[in-house]
Amino acid sequence: MRYLFTHLDKAWELTVIHLWLSLLPLVLGLVIAVPLGALVHRTTVLRRITTVVASIVFTIPSLALFVVLPLIIPTTILDPTNVIVALTLYTVALLVRAVPEALDAVPPAALDAATAVGYKPLTRVLKVELPLAVPVLVASLRVVAVTNISMVSVGSVIGIGGLGTWFTDGYQSDKSDQIIAGIIAIFVLAVVVDTLIMLAGKAATPWIRAGKVGRRQAKAEAK
Question: In the chain, at which end, N or C, are there fewer CB atoms within 10 A of the end residue's CB?
Answer without folding.
Answer: C
